[in-house]
C-alpha cells in the first residue's frame, strides 16, 4: 500500500524494507493488465496529456513576458506597452490556471470512473468466493483491498501518472526555453541542480524513517483506542477496573508519538532553511554570470530582461527535477498496489455453479451421504467415510462432542464447502450438479450465531423474500413467537436492530432468524443448534412453529436439547469425523455407547438446568414424561 506523502520538502523517494522485500514482478502481462483498466478512457487521457503539454508551454510565457517588460517597456519608458505586456502576462496566467483546472477535472473523472469499475468488479468477485475464503482471510485485509487499495488507484492516476507527464513536460519545455535564451546562463543554472538533489535525498531519507516510525506508533495508538474504547473492550476494562492502567499505557504511547512528531518537525525546519538557501544560489549565479557577460561586453545580445526571465524560469525547473528522480519509487509502489489488487482477482472460486446446472424438484427428496470425506487441510480429515440417508420428509438429529464435525456435515448440503471424496446427493442428484442459486434457494439454514444486517427488522426479514407481503411477514413472526415483541417497539417492524443486531438479545435475534427462514419457505431445513440462545420457555413457545416448518420437509437438526432430539425420526452420533452410532433414543441408550455418555454428561445436565429454571411449571413434567416414554 502506498505510503502517505512526506510533510515538508522531503521526497517520498524511499522504499521501506518491507517494500524492498516484496518488489512486484514487472512484466508485460502486469503492464498490459493495468492498461486494460485505462483503455476505456484513452480519449480522456489524450485530453489530459494535451492539457498538460499546453499548460507547460503556456507556463513559460509569464517569465518570457517579464523579460520583455524589462527590456522593452521599462527601459524605453513605454507605458502603453507596459500595460499591454502586463495584460498579456495576466492572460497567460489565467489561461494556465484554466487549463490546469480542466486537466484536474478530467483526471479526477477518469480516476473515479476506474475506481468505480474496479470496486464493482472486486465486490462481485468476492461475493462469489467460497465460504472457506472468508473463514481463512482476515476481514481487515478484505476491507483494505476493497477500500484503501482500490481507492489508492486514484492517487496513481491523478497523482503519479499525471505528475510524471507534467514534470517531464515542464522540465523539457523549460530547458528548451533556457538554452534558446542563453546557453551560457542555462548551463550555470543547471549546475546548481546536484546541490539541491544530494541534501534532499539525505535529509529526506532521515525524515522518511522518522515518518515511518511515527506511523507505526500511530498505528499502535489506534489499536489501543479501538480495543479499549470499543463496546466489549470498555466493558472488560470496567469489570477488571483497569481504567488507570489503560490510561497510563495510552499516555506512554502518546508521549512517544509526540516526541517523534516533534523530531520530524525539527528536521523539516532546518531542511527548509538549507533548501531555501540553495534554491537562491542558482538565481544569484545567473545574476552574477549575466552581469559579468553584460558588463564585460562578452555577450552583446544578452539583456537585463533575458536575465530576469531566466531567473524566473530556473526556479520553475528545480522542483520537477526532484520529483522525476523519485519516479522509480512511485512506479514501484504503483505496481505493488495493482499487484495486491490482482492477487484477489486471481483467486478462483472452488465452488461454482455448473454450466446448465439442473433444477429438479427436491420437495420431500432423500438426502444421501455416500462415502463422504472432507478436509479443510488436505493432511487433516474432518470427515471420514460418512454414510447415511435422510428419507424425504423426515427429521434427523445430529449429536456429538464439540469439534466432532457436526456443522461440517450439514454445510456440505448448500455447498458452503464441497466434499473431498464421495458425494452428497439430494433425490439422487449430486449437489455439485445443481444450479447453485437454485440449490441454496431451496435450503433453509438457521445457525447458532445469528447474523443481522444493520438495518430495520423489516429489511432483515425481507432478505429472505423481497416481495413478501405484510401479512406474510406478520405470520412468519407470529410463528417464531417474535411478533408481540416487534409491535411493542416504538417503530414496530421498522425498528433498527443495530450493528450485527446489537440492540436485540440473543433470543430475539435467533427468533428473527427463524422467522426469516419461515418466510423463505425452503424445501430442505437445517437447524444448526438454532435454539441454543433461547431459554426453555422461549424454546417451548416456538417449538410448535419449528415442527410446523419441518412438517413435510426433509430436515437435519444439530441439537443439544433432549426435548428436540426426542422428536427426531433418527439420531446420528458423530465422533472423530464418522457416524459412530445411529438409531432412536431408546436403542442408543441401551447400546451404552457414545450417545449414552453424551446423554449423561450433556443432555441430562440441560434437563436438570431446565427443571430448576422452570420449577413449578408444567414444562418439566412434560419433558420428563417424554423421556420416560422412551
Mean pLDDT across all residues, rounded? 80
Helix-strand category: alpha/beta
* Count of separate DSSP helical elements: 24
CATH homologous superfamily caption of one domain: ABC transporter type 1, transmembrane domain
Look at the structure and give the CATH class of one domain: Mainly Alpha
According to DSSP, the number of beta strands is 10
CATH topology of one domain: ABC transporter transmembrane region fold
- The radius of gyration is 37 Å
Shape: elongated
Proportion of residues in β-strands: 5-15%
Termini gap: 64 Å
Largest sheet properties:
6 strands, mixed
Strand order of the largest sheet: 6-7-8-3-9-10
Which consecutive residue ranges, at least 5 long each, have pLDDT under 50?
A: 1-12, 612-630
Amino acid at each position: 500500500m502506498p505510503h502517505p506523502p512526506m510533510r515538508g520538502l522531503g521526497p517520498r523517494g524511499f522504499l521501506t524494507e518491507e517494500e524492498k522485500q516484496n518488489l512486484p514482478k514487472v512484466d508485460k502481462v502486469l503492464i498490459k493488465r493495468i492498461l486494460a483498466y485505462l483503455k476505456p478512457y484513452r480519449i480522456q487521457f489524450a485530453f489530459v496529456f494535451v492539457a498538460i503539454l499546453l499548460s507547460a508551454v503556456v507556463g513559460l510565457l509569464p517569465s518570457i513576458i517579464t523579460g520583455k517588460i524589462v527590456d522593452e517597456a521599462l527601459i524605453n519608458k513605454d507605458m502603453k506597452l507596459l500595460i499591454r505586456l502586463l495584460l498579456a502576462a495576466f492572460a497567460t496566467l489565467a489561461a494556465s490556471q484554466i487549463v490546469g483546472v480542466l486537466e484536474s477535472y478530467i483526471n479526477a473523472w477518469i480516476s473515479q470512473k476506474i475506481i468505480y469499475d474496479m470496486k464493482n468488479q472486486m465486490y462481485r468477485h468476492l461475493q462469489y468466493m467460497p465460504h472457506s475464503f472468508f473463514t481463512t482471510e482476515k476481514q481487515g485485509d478484505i476491507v483494505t483491498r476493497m477500500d484503501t487499495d482500490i481507492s489508492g488507484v486514484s492517487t496513481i492516476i491523478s497523482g503519479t501518472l499525471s505528475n510524471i507527464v507534467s514534470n517531464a513536460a515542464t522540465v523539457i519545455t523549460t530547458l528548451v526555453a533556457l538554452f534558446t535564451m542563453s546557453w551560457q546562463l542555462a548551463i550555470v543554472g543547471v549546475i546548481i541542480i546536484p546541490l539541491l538533489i544530494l541534501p534532499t535525498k539525505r535529509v529526506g531519507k532521515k525524515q522518511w524513517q522518522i515518518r515511518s516510525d511515527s506511523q507505526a506508533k500511530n498505528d499502535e495508538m489506534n489499536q489501543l483506542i479501538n480495543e479499549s474504547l470499543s463496546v466489549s473492550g470498555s466493558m472488560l476494562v470496567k469489570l477488571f477496573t483497569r481504567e488507570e492502567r489503560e490510561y497510563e499505557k495510552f499516555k506512554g504511547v502518546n508521549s512517544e508519538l509526540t516526541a517523534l512528531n516533534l523530531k520530524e518537525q525539527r528536521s523539516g525546519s532546518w531542511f527548509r532553511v538549507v533548501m531555501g538557501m540553495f534554491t537562491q544560489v542558482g538565481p544569484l549565479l545567473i545574476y552574477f554570470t549575466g552581469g559579468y557577460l553584460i558588463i564585460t561586453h562578452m555577450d552583446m545580445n544578452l539583456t537585463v530582461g533575458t536575465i530576469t526571465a531566466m531567473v524566473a524560469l530556473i526556479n520553475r525547473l528545480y522542483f520537477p527535477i526532484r520529483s522525476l528522480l523519485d519516479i522509480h519509487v512511485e512506479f514501484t509502489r504503483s505496481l505493488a498496489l495493482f499487484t495486491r489488487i490482482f492477487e484477489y482477482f486471481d483467486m478462483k472460486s472452488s465452488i461454482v455453479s455448473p454450466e446448465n446446472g439442473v433444477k429438479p424438484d427436491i420437495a420431500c427428496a432423500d438426502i444421501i451421504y455416500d462415502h463422504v470425506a472432507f478436509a479443510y487441510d488436505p493432511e487433516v480429515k474432518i470427515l471420514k467415510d460418512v454414510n447415511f440417508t435422510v428419507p424425504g420428509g423426515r427429521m434427523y438429529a445430529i449429536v456429538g462432542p464439540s469439534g466432532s464435525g457436526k456443522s461440517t456435515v450439514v454445510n456440505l448440503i448448500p455447498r458452503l464447502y464441497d466434499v473431498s471424496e464421495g458425494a452428497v446427493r439430494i433425490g439422487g442428484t449430486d449437489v455439485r450438479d445443481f444450479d447453485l442459486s437454485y440449490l441454496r434457494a431451496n435450503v433453509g439454514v438457521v445457525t447458532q450465531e445469528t447474523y443481522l444486517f444493520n438495518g430495520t427488522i423489516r429489511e432483515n426479514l425481507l432478505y429472505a423474500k423481497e416481495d413478501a407481503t405484510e401479512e406474510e411477514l406478520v405470520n412468519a413472526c407470529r410463528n417464531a413467537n417474535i411478533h408481540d415483541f416487534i409491535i411493542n417497539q416504538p417503530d414496530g417492524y421498522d425498528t433498527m436492530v443495530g450493528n450485527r443486531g446489537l440492540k436485540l438479545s440473543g433470543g430475539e435475534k435467533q427468533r428473527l432468524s427463524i422467522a426469516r427462514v419461515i418466510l423463505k419457505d425452503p424445501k430442505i431445513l437445517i437447524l444448526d443448534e438454532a435454539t441454543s440462545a433461547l431459554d426453555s420457555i422461549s424454546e417451548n413457545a416456538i417449538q410448535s412453529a419449528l415442527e410446523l416448518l419441518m412438517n413435510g420437509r426433509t430436515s437435519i437438526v444439530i441439537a443439544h436439547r433432549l426435548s428436540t432430539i426426542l422428536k427426531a425420526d433418527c439420531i446420528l452420533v458423530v465422533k472423530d469425523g464418522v457416524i459412530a452410532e445411529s438409531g432412536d433414543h431408546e436403542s442408543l441408550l441401551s447400546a451404552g455407547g457414545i450417545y449414552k455418555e453424551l446423554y449423561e454428561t450433556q443432555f441430562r445436565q440441560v434437563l436438570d438446568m431446565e427443571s430448576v429454571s422452570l420449577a413449578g411449571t408444567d414444562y418439566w413434567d412434560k419433558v420428563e414424561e417424554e423421556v420416560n416414554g422412551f
